[in-house]
Amino acid sequence: MLLRFDDVSLAFGSRPLLDHVTLQVEEGERVCLVGRNGEGKSSLLRLVSGSSVPDDGTVWVKPGSRLAMLAQDLDAVDDARVIDIVAGGLPLDAGEDWEIAYRVETVLSRLGLEADKYFTNLSGGWRRRVLLGRALVADPDILLLDEPTNHLDISAIEWLEESMTEFHGALLFVSHDRAFVNRLATRVVELDRGLLSSWPGNYDDFVIKKALQLEIEAKANAQFDKKLAQEEVWIRRGVEARRTRNEGRVRALKALRVERRDRRDRIGNAEFSLAEASESGKIVFEAEGAAVKFGDTTIIRDLNLKIQRGDRIGIVGPNGVGKSTLIRLLLGELEATSGKIMRGSKQEVAYYDQQREQLNLTASLVDNVNNGNQFVPIDGENRHVSGYLRDFLFRQDQMRTPASALSGGERNRLLLARLFARPANILVMDEPTNDLDIDTLELLEELVANFNGTLLLVSHDRAFLDHVVTGLLIFEDNGQVREFVGGWSDWIRWRNTRDAGLRSQRKNIGSVSAADISVKAVEASRPRKLSFKDQREFDSLPHEIEQLEKSKQELENLMAEPAFYTRCQNEVRETIKQSEILTLQVENAYARWSALEALRIP
C-alpha cells in the first residue's frame, strides 16, 4: 500500500468536504476521483500532496515514496524556460549533474518539448505538457493529476492516455473526460456529500452500479421519512403518550430527528434550458474559396462549405491550428483575406467563449448573470435571478458572494447561466466542457443535443462530440478543412481504414525489386489497347458512377432533413455509415475509370 486515509475530516466553513472518510491506494492502481464541482476533489488531492492538512484523522504516505502533482491551475507557474521548469520537479537527491541532465533531456524528448521556449509563450496544451514533464521527471511512486485533459487537444489527450498506461506507479486523478476515465481507470472513487465510495472498474461500470445504489438509497430514505412522520404523529398525541409513559419510544423519536437532520440529501441535478429564438434562414453559413492569412502564414485555405439550419457541427484539430479563427470568420468578427463568406438571415447567436466572456470576479453571481437585474426572461416569462441560478445548482448563500469564491467548475456553470439567459437560434461553444463535473456535463450534452437551432462546437471531449454533433470540420495540414458526416468515433474508424489501405499500398510497393520497377516503368510507358474485359468495365463505369452518386445524393437529402436526427440513434448512425461507404465507392469508381482511360490509345 502506498497511500491511506484514516478517519479523515475536512471542512470549508460550516460545510464538511470530507466526513471521517477512509481511502487506500495500492501500487499500480489508477484511481479516478469523481464528484460534483465544489465537493472537495481538489482539496483531497492537496491533502495527499501535503500542501494542506486535515481537520481530523491522518493521511499516511508510505515512507520513502516519491510524490508528484500536476495542478489544475496553469497560471500558478512563474514564467521561465521550459527546461528550468521541468528540472524544478527533481528531488534534492536527484544525483550527479550528468544524471540530472540525462533525466531532464529524456523527459523533454518524450514530451516533445523545446527546452529554451518560455512558458508564457506556450498554448494551454503545451503548458500542460511542461507541467506534466515537471511531475514525471521526479520518477514518482504516486502521481496526482487534477483535470489533466483541460486545454489539451485530442491528439495530446490520446498521447497522455498512452503515457499514463505505461506509468508504473500509482495514479490518483480527477477528470471529467469520460473517454479518458474509461481508458485509464482501474477504480472509480466518488466524493459525494462528504463521503467516499469505491467502485471497481471504469466510468461506464461506475454509472451502472451507482444508478442502482441511488435507487436503493431513495427507497431507504422514503421508508425512513415515512417512519419519522408516523412517530411525529404519535408524539403529538401528547396525552396518550404521557399516559403510556413509553419513554423508550420518545428517545427513539429524538434519535430519528437527529439522524434526519444529519442526513445530507444528494443535491439535485442541474435543470437548465436554453431560451430559443425564432428560426434562422435555411442557409446559415456558406463559404466559397475563403482563406485567412496572418502575415505570411495561411491559417485557413480554400474553404468551401455550407452549413444549414439544424446542423450540429464539431470543429476539431490541434491547439493553435485555427479553430477559433474559423468561428470568428463565420460569425463576421474576422474578414476573409480572399474568397467569400455568406451569412443567412434572422440570426440570433449565443457565443460561449471562455476567453471573451470572462466573469467579473469581484461581482456577485447575481450581477454576473444579468447585470444586476432581478429577473431573467426565459421562454417568454420573467424568472427571478435567484431561482434561475438555483437551477444551475448554486446555493442561496452563494447568490451575493463574489465569483472569485467559486471553483473552476462553478465558474463554468456561471458562464453557462449567463449564456443561456439570451434567446438564440445559433449556439456557438468554444471548449465548453472544461472543469464541468460529469453530471453537469451530461445534462449540458442532453440540452445541446436537443437544441433545435444550429450548433458550432469546438471541443476536445470525444464522448461529448459523439453524442451531440452530426458532422465535423477537421483541420488538416496547410490550413485545409475537411468536412465529414458523423461523430468523432465515425471519423476515427474511417481514418483508420484509410490509413490501413495506404500502409498496405506502401508495403506492396516496397516489396517490388528495383529491376521489377524498371521493367514495369518501361511497360507502363508503352501505349496498349484495353483488353476486352477492361473495355467492358470502362464502358460500364459511367453508369455505375451515376447510380452510386444518385444513391449518395438520396442519403444526403435524407440527412439534410431536420427531422432525420430525431429518429432512432442506431438508424441515424447506420445511415451516416452508409453515406461514408458510398462516398468511398464513388471515389474508387472515379479512380478506376481514370486508370482505364489512361490505358486507351489516343
Notable traits:
20 strands; six-stranded mixed sheet; Rossmann fold; alpha/beta; 21% strand; 19 helices; 602 residues; Helix Hairpins; single chain; 45% helix
3D structure, described in words:
This protein has 602 residues and is of the alpha/beta class. The chain folds into three domains: 3-207, P-loop containing nucleotide triphosphate hydrolases (Rossmann fold), CATH 3.40.50; 283-490, 3-Layer(aba) Sandwich (Rossmann fold); 512-599, Valyl-tRNA synthetase, C-terminal domain (Helix Hairpins), CATH 1.10.287. Helices cover 45% and strands 21% of the residues. It has 19 helices and 20 strands. It has a six-stranded mixed β-sheet with strand order 5-6-7-3-8-9, sandwiched between helices. A six-stranded mixed β-sheet has the order 14-17-18-12-19-20, sandwiched between helices. Helix 3 runs antiparallel to helix 4. It is globular and about 105 Å long. The chain starts with a strand and ends with a helix.
Q: Secondary-structure map with pairings?
A:
Layout: E1 3-12, E2 15-25, E3 30-34, H1 41-49, E4 56-61, E5 67-70, H2 82-87, H3 97-111, H4 124-136, E6 142-146, H5 154-165, E7 170-174, H6 178-184, E8 187-192, E9 195-200, H7 203-236, H8 238-244, H9 247-262, E10 283-294, E11 297-308, E12 312-316, H10 323-331, E13 338-343, E14 349-353, H11 365-370, E15 375-378, E16 381-384, H12 385-390, H13 408-420, E17 426-430, H14 438-450, E18 454-458, H15 462-468, E19 471-475, E20 481-485, H16 488-510, H17 514-525, H18 532-560, H19 569-599
Parallel strand pairs: 3-7, 3-8, 5-6, 6-7, 12-18, 12-19, 14-17, 17-18
Antiparallel strand pairs: 1-2, 1-4, 8-9, 10-11, 10-13, 15-16, 19-20
Helix pairs in contact: 3-4, 7-9, 18-19
